[in-house]
């Protein structure tokens, strides 16, 4: 009984989970910690999220 219910709901839950995870990464992509620790380590996104700003141009 429970196995059948979980089997019916798992595609929907996986789709919603992937959407929520992608939205959270999109929302948090402006945060330096997420950009440095998560997004810069993804091979496809590595070049886009690398920070090439010289240290003299950074205020903090």
UniProtKB/TrEMBL annotation:
It comes from the Eukaryota. Keywords: Membrane, Transmembrane, Transmembrane helix. The keyword Membrane applies. GO terms for biological process: mitochondrial electron transport, ubiquinol to cytochrome c. InterPro entries: Cytochrome_b-c1_su10_fun. The chain crosses the membrane at residues 13-34. It holds the Pfam family QCR10. One of its GO terms (cellular component) is mitochondrion. This is Uncharacterized protein.
């Amino acid at each position: 009984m429970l196995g059948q219910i979980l089997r019916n709901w798992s595609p929907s839950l996986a789709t919603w989970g992937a959407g929520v995870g992608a939205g959270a990464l999109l929302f948090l992509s402006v945060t330096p910690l997420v950009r440095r620790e998560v997004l810069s380590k993804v091979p496809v996104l590595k070049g886009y999220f690398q920070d090439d700003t010289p240290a003299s141009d950074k205020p903090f």
